[in-house]
Amino acid sequence: MTLTFQHKGAGHVSFSTQPGERGRRKMRIGPVGRWVMQRTNREARGRGGRLMGMNVFVLHTVGYRSGQRRASPVSWFADGDQAWLIVASARRPARSPDWYHNLAAHPDQVSIDVPHRGTIQVRAEQLDGDARADAWQRIISEQPHYAVYQAKTGRVPPVIRLTAV
Asked: What's the burial of 23, exposed, middle or buried (CB within 10 Å: 0-12/13-18/19+)?
């Protein structure tokens, strides 16, 4: 399935989801889950952007159903001076994380909190073909556990390039 959304002045951006991903029952996060997420976001900001041996920033999106602002800690990989690569992986192997669907629904309402640089407005673009293959090789050379994740899940996790606007 491919979802296409219009960017202001940037043409079309498409995000591809795995068959059966949309419409599944949403996992509810209770008070403890919200507390854990808030704590993880604070740690991602406060530790200079390093968490569990990875570069981490806080990704701000708008919920694809709720329309509410969401914040998610996400590991990232440099792609030049003004661009970052992120992988739509989750502990739930059968699905992409909710922030991925938020990016697809509202690609023009995305920002990141980069340590020592502040909040930056970005445009999201899903990579495919050779661009994805090249980015994936850089990602797994820096963090080999992503290759293990892909092999274990049996799905190809989307790679997203965030570019400063």
From this structure: exposed
Instruction: Indicate the SS3 state at residue 52.
Output: coil
Q: What is the CATH number of the domain that holds 105?
A: 2.30.110.10
Number of Cβ atoms within 10 Å of the Cβ of 128: 13
Q: Is residue 8 part of a domain?
A: no
pTM: predicted TM-score of the whole model, two decimal places? 0.74
Q: How far apart are the first and last CA of the chain?
A: 28
pLDDT digits (tens, 9 = 90+) for 132-143: 999 999 999 999
158 vs 18, 21, 146, 148, CA distance in Å? 9, 13, 12, 15
57-93 pLDDT, tens per residue? 899 999 998 999 999 889 999 998 899 999 998 766 6
Is 14 within a domain? no
Do residues 149 and 155 lie in contact, with contact meaning Cβ atoms separated by under 8 Å? Answer: no
Q: Which domain holds residue 69?
A: 54-165
